[in-house]
Amino acid sequence: MTRRGSARKPVQLSTPPKAVTKTPKQQKMCRSPKFGHLSAESVYTMTSRDFQTDTNAHVEIIAEHLKDISCINFFQAAIMHNKHLFRGRTVLDIGCGVGILSLFAAKAGAAQVYAVDSSNVLDYTKQIVSDNGYADVIHVIKGSIEKIELPVKNVDIIICNWLGYSMLFQAACNLVIYARDKWLKKENGIILPDVAKLFMAAIEDSKSKNDRVEWWNDVYGINMKCMRDFALSEPSFQLVQPKQLLSTQFGIKYLNMHTATKEDLKFRCKYMLEMRRSGYVDGITTYFQVFFTKSHTPMGLSTDPCVWRTHWMQAVFFLDKPVYVNAGELYYGGIEMQSVGPGCDLNNMELGFEMFSGDPSHLQLEAEMHWKLKPHAVIVQDQIEENKSKELNMKEETINNDQHKSKEMEKNLMTNKNVDSPKIFVKIDKDKSPPISPTSVVIGDYTYPCLVMKKSKKMKHAKKG
Q1: Which residues, in sequence order, are CB contacts of 270 under 8 Å at separation 6+?
Q2: Residue 52 contacts by C-beta under 8 Å, 6 or more apart in sequence?
């Protein structure tokens, strides 16, 4: 029984619903109230799966590179302090990202700037260039540098952040070499930056090695030693403290982009390290220095542990077994870095290492290792290191506040002052979450410590308030 006027036809389950078909043009296009008709390849329509293959278009990756103050300040100073080199010139920006370097070049007086990138980040770049009033100067081109064609035969300057982890891993050196041979003027052509040097040093870092490698020996009572070899075969990209350095540094690779070829993107050399102090060598670390030699004033950027943090940090390669060394001893060996397989794939590289001790005529092998450099290890470790640094800063801030409070309490007790509550306050940074303590109250921008009274049996049934 159904009510009058409410009878419905039975649903025919055997007949599938009619599919809604779209024309190829409708499938490629979508509508946005702000940006109008956009291609499915636009950054504004990318899904989480698309960002896995195009990480450079993700806003967090963009912010990470722009917040590298040391790197951005180096490029800005190298361009703005050499306006005479850029004034009226044609500039090619390889891997431009959101176009920060292209905008610096345009502000320095460049006549034409060609910003090239294969990522969908260029959708942001076009808007940023237009908002800053340089749409007539900066021309955004999407595509790989090997497949595009520029509207000009030659360029005067090539700017590119071509450095990678350990200088070569995930670098853009091969792209700069290709663009240099095809478009850069033979006479007075400029590459920014143009010279870099890779260094190595021995370090002592048992804590990081235990957390990353030795941890696999006993995982919640389960034997997972088979995973230890895989963890040991990959480097760790982390911040190395100056106090962890055991030896002097040694230059192992020099690269000049004006004369380099693809054969120069791999190397094999000998090294010698002098130990500054006694300790256990848990691994080696690599870092680089980069320079702009065409500047009228010296311009350089360093990523060694003794300077300000960069997004490259330092690469740490752990040894299978630690090697005990004494201060003043010399250790020799060879180190080799090259891409895996045919061609010049800087996203898939390996590093070989051997270390000897004793007299050069009677050397004793102390360590021999091979590591594989894979892209995913960089992103994961960078996030872990960032979280660790945040936790460490919070812990140090909390410890400092607690020590300050305890000292004031001791002073009051020693002077026998009857104070209802200690008049101590700590200025709170609004950008950072304050250390929350059960014995403190946050009022406005200040945290006030409170005296805690223990419950008494007499106060068990005391009135509220």
Answers
A1: 332, 333, 334
A2: none
Joined tokens for residue 200? 């190595």
Average pLDDT by consecutive 10-residue portion of the chain (465 residues)? 43 40 41 38 80 85 92 96 96 96 97 96 95 96 94 96 95 96 94 97 96 92 92 94 96 97 95 96 97 91 93 96 96 94 88 92 92 67 49 57 58 47 38 42 48 46 48
Q: State the DSSP H helix or E strand holding residue 177, giving kind and residue range, or none if neither.
A: helix 173-182
DSSP 216-257: GG-BTTB--THHHHHHHTS-EEEPPPGGGB-B--EEEEEEET
* Residue 102, amino acid: S
β partners of residue 167: 164
Distances (CA, A) of 341 to 207, 335, 344, 373: 34, 19, 8, 13
CA distance linking residue 453 with residue 451, whole number of Å: 6
- 170 closest CA partner among 18, 312, 17: 312
Q: State how far the Cα of 27 lies from the Cα of 377, in Å rounded to an integer.
A: 36
- Residue 230: closest CA among 372, 412, 343, 392: 372
Pairwise CA distance, residues 270 & 336, whole Å:
9
Q: What share of the chain is helix, strand, coil (3-state, %, to 5)?
A: 30, 30, 40
Q: Are 31 and 17 in contact (CB under 8 A)?
A: no
Say which residues have a Cβ less than 8 Å from residue 186's Cβ, sequence separation at least 6. none
Q: DSSP strand E in 311-459: where?
A: 314-325, 330-339, 349-357, 364-373, 426-427, 440-443, 446-449
Number of Cβ within 10 Å of residue 153's Cβ equals: 9
* CA 2 to each of CA 7, 8, 179, 375, 398: distance values in angstroms, whole numbers, following the listed order: 6, 9, 77, 65, 71
DSSP-derived 3-state class of residue 303: coil
Using only C-alpha atoms, what is the Rg of the chain? 30
